[in-house]
Amino acid sequence: MRSIHAALDALDAAVELLGAADIEELPAPERFAAIERLESAVRRQVAVSHEQITHLDRYEGCPPIPIVLADVLRISRAAAKRRVSDAEQLTPRTTLTGEALAPLLPETGKAWEAGQLDGEHVRVIQKFFRELPGHVGPVEIEKAERTLAEHAQAMRPDQLEKVADRLATLLNPDGKYSEEDRARKRGFLWCGGQRPDGMSVGKLVATPQLRAELDAVFAKLAAPQPDDLRSHAQRQHDALSQLVRDRLGDPKLGQHNGLPVTMIVTTTLQDLQAGAGHAVTAGGTLIPITDLIRMATPSYNYLAVFDGVTGQSLWLGRSKRLASADQRIMLLAKYRGCTAPGCTVNGYNSQVHHATKDWKHGGTTDIDHLTLACKCDNLVVENDGWATHQLPNGQTHWTPPSDVPLRGGTNDFHHPERFLPKDDEKD
User: Fold this and answer.
1) Where are the beta strands (DSSP E) in 202-274?
2) How many folded domains does the chain comprise?
3) In terms of domains, do 224 and 289 share one?
4) How far apart are CA 116 and CA 148, in angstroms?
5) Closest CA to 406 of 424, 369, 380, 371
6) Which residue range(s) make up the domain with 405?
7) pLDDT of 211
8) What does the pLDDT look like over 389-415, one tens digit per residue?
9) What is the pTM of this model?
């Protein structure tokens, strides 16, 4: 068997050779055929990469494979998870006892391996099966997968989508969906981050029950008022905002990570005085200072203010095992999220972590010795040999075990302003 290093060296050499080649040497009609061959080669490389992903082993002391893969390849964690999921569906599998299993999408996997499919083709086929109702039998599913894989090799993804929609209607002509089918599709997601104007776009797939509940609420809270210039969509947005705002801080919601369920916002004294700039929530959302001032109502309970020059914050020492509420607020304000390098978990979903020495080893619960870590990263420190310590600038440095293929360091993900030039560095 050829060495993987020798194969990669040969691939690098071939890519160099290809990059130096002149496609204009070919007659014009043949250039499209050359690009088609190149596209097929690229797709085959992607398929090979996905197949190799199935052979990755989890290192002791490592986070889950998608997280490691994202850092090593410098891709988003969502993309890494998608690659792992694709590999599980498109490549042969092996049971814990060593028994070989066919891919979950066997015909699609064959076309994928041959370089006939693009990632968009795969997404169309995956969506088709994700939305198929549970009453469709295995024989029909197998035939459908074979049909879509065959058409995918001769169609663009947008054309394949039309075929998939028609096939879905054929397999479920009466449009029957069970309660389980509907529940499986429910969800709400933000579509990316905030836009430059601060606005956000979300996608809601609501169950019949939620739709009915919202209809009842909107009938009251979103009803047009005299001289109301708002559109129907704007009134419903404002009604939803009122509905959530009225619940924030409600004792009936209990607590989350030791704090009431409410917004935790941080800003600088300088921005407050100027009435400009942005505050940041523990969820990573930017709020214009003008909105922050307008929001100063009983529904918003916690505002942490830092000196914008020195970064000075509260000092609170405690001998208790659990950090006090005010310490948690300042930690959320200071770090905004998990401090492990590259981690994207926001502050609301992070835990207090003893950065210098764990509590059970004699660490103190003083604010300068505390930081934030998500549940996963907290566990790798406690169980898998990672180490953390505080730097003089207040940031938390993470050091992995020597045999873990990850770089240590600090996390700037929740602080994108650190990558921007300072005022005295601007032209």
Assistant:
1) 202-205, 255-256, 259-260, 264-268
2) 4
3) no
4) 13
5) 380
6) 325-418
7) 94
8) 888 888 999 998 887 778 889 998 888
9) 0.70
